[in-house]
UniProtKB/TrEMBL annotation, chain A:
Phylogenetic classification of the source organism: Bacteria, Pseudomonadati, Pseudomonadota, Alphaproteobacteria, Hyphomicrobiales
One GO-annotated biological process of the protein: rhythmic process
PANTHER family: CIRCADIAN CLOCK PROTEIN KAIB2, KAIB-LIKE PROTEIN 1
Pfam families: KaiB
Classification via InterPro entries: KaiB-like, KaiB_domain, Thioredoxin-like_sf
CDD domains listed in its UniProt record: KaiB_like
Record's protein name: Circadian clock KaiB family protein
Species of origin: Devosia sediminis
Residue ranges annotated for the KaiB domain, each copy included: 11-92
SUPFAM superfamilies noted in UniProt: Thioredoxin-like
UniProtKB/TrEMBL annotation, chain B:
Protein name: Blue-light-activated histidine kinase
Keywords in alphabetical order: ATP-binding, Kinase, Nucleotide-binding, Phosphoprotein, Transferase
GO function terms (MF aspect): ATP binding; protein histidine kinase activity
Highest taxon listed in the record's lineage: Bacteria
Record bears the keyword ATP-binding: yes
Matches recorded under NCBIfam families: sensory_box (TIGR00229)
InterPro entries found in the cross-reference section: HATPase_C_sf (IPR036890), PAS (IPR000014), PAS-like_dom_sf (IPR035965), PAS_4 (IPR013656), Sig_transdc_His_kinase_HWE (IPR011102)
Amino acid sequence: MSELTHPKKLTLYVAGQTPKSLAAIANLKSITEQHMPGQYEIEVIDLRQNPKLAKEHSIVAIPTLVRELPVPIRKIIGDLSDVEKVLVSLKVQGE
Amino acid sequence: MSLDEIAELRRRLSEAEDTIRAIHQGDVDALVVGELSNPQVFDIGGGADAYHAFMEVMNVGAVAVDQTGRILYANANMNAVLGVTQNSVQGTLFSDVAQAPVAEAIQRLLVPPLVGPVSTEVEFDRNGERVHYVLAATPLRLSTTLGVAVTFTDVTEQVRAQAAEQNERAARAVIASANEAVLVCDRNGVITHANTASHAVFDGDPLGLTFAQAVPLVFPNATGLMQSEDIVQMAVQGTPVQGVEAHAPNAPKAKDYLVSAAPLQIGNDAISGCVVTMVDLSQRKAAEKQQLLMMRELDHRVKNTLALVQSIASRTLHHEDTLEGFQKAFTGRIQALAATHNLLAENSWTNLTIEDVVLSELAPYTSGVSGRLVVHDLGHSLSPRAAIALGLVLHELATNATKYGALSVPGGKVSVREYVETAAQPDRFVIEWQESGGPVVTPPTRKGFGQTVIARSLQYAPAGGAEVDFAPEGLVCRISVPIEDMAGQ
């Protein structure tokens, strides 16, 4: 029940204002607003500011989007310009 | 190893494969490298700082966009171009922050393949002002992303200057091609422009002279107080002067003009001078003069004709015993007069040939019967005055011939010829009327008005007149036409 009332968290790892980072932020906002409004809460982590935060989700490539819940954890690498691919990855069976 | 551990390993393997594939495909532009305890972010293809710094020092608007039109970086000048702040444009699509014409121009520059520098022009309204920019795009690879760097160069001033120059050129062309003399003066009345047609009012180069110096004017319909400088002064002060007739005594050719002067106002500025136009009136004046002359001539002719009619009426009345006789004789004479008038009117009161008059006057008496009238080469021309007199004489002769002479019987005929009689001094031009085939002629016992008309009609000049010979075999009348009334004599 808590999953319905509280938005699930999406963490986007970027590196300052690289082209892909800028694109990923904008694309993610647009996808969540258009296709799943209110379901997700977005946290953008700038690894250029704090590289150590890469450790938590073992981030190697930037940008990377991480969905922790529901398990299993999912990672989408790239600027999120392929909307279909992002939607398929975010929607797990039964949702 | 438990099933969970195997699943976890599989997940990690899959993740590692995804990462490698993404790096291969250029889906990422930064990597986290180094020790786990001290990771660092590494930009693929170098950092963005270098190109940011480079773009900032450019003195035009500069922006880097990716292929979707997303703004990766815009310099401070660029934000000024769009009228926005940097925070609001980075990462956004051009179409979200720029006006439609600008976004469309960017789209044109992003049409693949992105090769070589391309440029386009765009104009849009910014803060209520129309601005013009030239956009130049060069393909730009920023790490793994392909995009374009676009510069925005403000050409508003150049475009405005060009438009102003074009207007100026058009205005000059309009002035130059006007048929009327057009002179442009500044506020002090000094001529600054003059078209080709203005040579008609001033022989030479009028530039630098005041209008009053170059073209002194006299206004016949105004008091002597009004002069050239006054019309310029009025126009410069904002009062247009429209269509004043003026005489330009110093003008090389035509002297009469219709002068207008209008204030010269460029845009919303104050009046900077005036434009004087001068239309040549000489043709109109000449036409008016001709018309006046014709009216006087017409007046003269009408008076002459009325005097003649009056004289015919009183004379006819004097010679006729009955009202019926008067009516017949008078109407016949007026009709004779009218016939010649008609001929003259048809020929615009120019000279008529003798044949024209003879055929016109005798038509009522000889029509329908061939051989009654024989004319011999009557090609000489007469003045209107002589034609009217000849018409009256011929009418009387014809009336007489119908009553008593050759035209009173079948087989009788009249022949008319012309000749120059050299025996007399000076030479006389004679029109001879000869009747034949009629009854034996005897001189009349009583002299009627008809004979007076015949004798006197052409006596308005010393050489004019007519004499009648009542020869028994047929009446002969020799009509002398004053030599000055023979055209071309």
